[in-house]
Specification:
240 residues, Alpha-Beta Plaits, alpha+beta, 17% strand, 9 helices, seven-stranded mixed sheet, globular
């Protein structure tokens, strides 16, 4: 079962990644990816978390979420989504054993240009893997929900996302995002960036310094590293 990283703090955006056990392709069937999305929708309703983006691939998931409540429900949301997906799969396959890796990873993301960057990184996942040529070709992602302007059973909290990104409306969000996606694809700079999945946080130097001061004592010796598009609070641990 999923266990949250213990450096969790309230009122932040978190990029969460979780892999299937031993990197197996346990989500290779469409029905299982759809069930993960179904339970994510149920978690959104039950725990009132703000989902900003997501993708479910054949062997791992990405989830971008903001929790502005006094008590965090991210861990409970992950337990519901991951737990029910695993239980249904194992029951259908008469299978025993772990479905997910033991711990999911969470990276804090600053709510500025870094939020845009993280959204793009998530939606280009299957492009990096060579499975599709455009994110619109992978249906189990926030990109397609955004572009289709889905209203009923929407997983993404679009009013909240619009507020965080400081765009005028959903039309402005779509126009800006499509332009950024196309620009990124044309640049051919879509390689894997470990900062989004292996660091404690990504953002400006000021944001990371403030965040570091809020962290438990054992994180005080972590290093702020500069890269081309900002800074990251480096954690030597690696995700499974």
């Amino acid at each position: 079962m999923a266990r949250a990283n213990r450096h969790y703090m309230s009122n932040l955006i978190w990029h969460i990644t979780q892999r299937c056990h031993n990197r197996k392709f346990l989500l290779k069937f469409v029905r299982d990816r759809k069930r993960w999305l179904y339970w994510l929708f149920q978690a959104k309703k039950r725990y009132k978390i703000h989902i900003l983006n997501y993708i479910v691939t054949s062997n791992h998931i990405h989830l971008l979420v903001h929790d502005d409540l006094k008590k965090s429900f991210i861990s409970e949301s992950m337990n519901l989504t991951a737990g029910r997906t695993a239980w249904e799969y194992n029951r259908r396959k008469s299978r025993k054993g772990a479905f997910w890796e033991d711990r999911y990873h969470a990276t804090a993301v600053e709510s500025d240009s870094h939020l845009w960057q993280c959204m793009i990184y998530i939606d280009l996942n299957m492009l990096r893997a060579g499975v599709v040529k455009h994110p619109s070709e992978w249906p189990h992602s926030g990109y397609n929900e955004m572009i289709a302007q889905k209203e009923r059973y929407s997983i993404i909290d679009f009013p909240y996302l619009i507020k965080l990104l400081r765009v005028k409306d959903r039309g402005g969000l779509i126009d800006t995002y499509e332009e950024m996606i196309e620009k990124k694809i044309k640049s051919k700079c879509i390689h894997r960036e470990p900062k989004w999945t292996e660091s404690l946080a990504v953002g400006s130097e000021e944001f990371l310094k403030k965040l570091k001061n809020r962290m438990p004592l054992r994180y005080k010796n972590k290093t702020i590293i500069e890269h081309a598009e900002g800074f990251e609070l480096h954690d030597s641990r690696q995700i499974p």
